[in-house]
Design goal:
By secondary structure, the protein is of the alpha/beta class. It has helices at 15-26, 37-57, 70-85, 100-111, 129-135, 161-167, 241-252, 257-276, 303-312, 330-334, 339-343, 356-373, and strands at residues 3-4, 64-67, 91-95, 115-119, 140-146, 173-177, 196-200, 211-215, 282-283, 293-297, 315-316, 345-349. Helix 4 (100-111) links the parallel strand 3 (91-95) and strand 4.
Length: 376
Amino acid sequence: MIAYLDNSATTKVCREAVSKMCDCMENNWGNPSSLHIMGINACNILEEARETLAKALGCQKKEIFFTSGGTEANNLAIKGAVSKNRRKGRKIIASSIEHPSVMNVMDMLERDGFEVVRLICDENARVRLEDLEREIDENTILVSLMAVNNEVGSIQPFDKVKSIINKKGSPALLHVDAVQAFGKIPLKPSAMSIDLMTVSSHKIHGPKGAGALYIKDGVRINPVTLGGEQEKQIRPGTEAMPAIAGFGEAIKQLPNINGQLKKMTTLRNDFLLKLEAVEGVCINSTEDALPYIVNISVPGLRSEPMLNLLSDMGVCVSSGSACAKGHKSYVLEALGLDNGRIDSALRISMSRYTTEEELDLFIKGIQTAQKVLRRR
């Protein structure tokens, strides 16, 4: 038995998405920009996927722009917004626990002379709205805040940010990285007054290689790459049709969000009860975090040997963000955890397909690791 508990890194592609992708590669392989029948068929598939995503987000089709994934969409949103609005100000605000595709762009912009404010999070891994209100001013052109943290699952108060921006009379746009949130919590960017929002396919049982950026109607950003007319020149280049088609189909297969959230909360809570009975385990995620993500530590046992032992047992978890490639977690550092907790951290991330048996196998693996590794 394989217990796959690394769904924040990527998810298994659902059968319906695989079938749609195969049809796109075998029967409808035309370029959606071509004017002949094969191109028209491909264009129809492209627009069907766009309509599906727009419906899921409660927005207009024209507000959806496909990309190669969340990283590209985050880069496009931030760089595009700053490039377009740099004459209005030089200040950008983000949290200190953003994904590397946001953090590294902030570092680059800071080197280019922008003032970047990285808000410190509280003990629940959330930014303080009073800190945000204090920092936003007439020189602020962008606030970028993730909806759900990819390592500990904390849910940020992203839906309250725009009202603060408006209250302070700031020209700032609001960008929300919703890669870990899409399909798991209700997201309606227009109703939440979000200007730019990033989503990704392979986090919701769609294929890798597809993502999207929501751009609120009326909001203008500059493209990062130049080319043809695709995606209204915002993201030029021939669309990756099999991946986009699979993305659209994966969206169609999403279960009712509120019902699934309730189910996952029950599964997570039962899992936590069992974990708390295991001596030496510390829970790093808070009770009100997204139930799909649980971050723990086993002080005294380093993450890497635990990961190797668990993998040998058929249990797949991670020590943090897959994009960090084994580097120490700056997210856990930002939360003020000591080195013992950070060096022994494991992230268990679930999907709608996760079973109680998989979680039980993980707990058995931790108990085995405590016996085997402490003897070495």
